[in-house]
Amino acid sequence: MNEKQIKQLKDQLTQDLKDVKGRLHVDTHLETTELSNYDNHPADNATDLTDQNTEMAIEHHKEEEVEQIEDALLAIENGTYGVCAICGEDIPFERLEALPFAQTCIEHANHDVDSDSRPTEEAILGSSTEHPLKDEGGVRDFNDSFEEVEDFGSSDSPQDADRGDQKNFYKK
């Protein structure tokens, strides 16, 4: 990597750091929409809690991003920028251009999918409504449950139904 490319990446990192720090909230007080929780519906409290958790997660992500950018800027000052922290090989400029705070080459990047944080329902439910349960000792749904429920009633209007079904829709 030449000096011009390093300067370009340093400028980009400096601008990114300024942008991310500008989006960080200085006030750590979590806001609520209610003055009192005494007469609130539980769903209102749940909405406030969900909003607070989401905001905290976003702030945590921004703080991690600031730390990564600062580490990259420090590596530029130390002369170790653009070198893989694991194998010591040069990180391609294209990778650094796409992810300026990358500290590893693509071969040593973390490719692991965090399957532990996936919803537990995914272990049981399939992606099809035709057969939603796997054969692991559970009940197998051989009928299309969704269509049975839809036959009972739905919020569809006649315009949503197929042309052939509109005649039957009015007969019900």
UniProtKB/TrEMBL annotation:
Residues 144-153 have a biased composition (Acidic residues). Residues 112-172 are annotated as: Disordered. Keywords: Metal-binding, Zinc, Zinc-finger. Residues 112-121, 131-143, 160-172 have a biased composition (Basic and acidic residues). SUPFAM superfamilies: DnaK suppressor protein DksA, alpha-hairpin domain, Glucocorticoid receptor-like (DNA-binding domain). InterPro entries: DnaK_N, YteA, Znf_DskA_TraR. It comes from the Bacteria. This is TraR/DksA C4-type zinc finger protein. A zinc finger (dksA C4-type) spans 84-108.
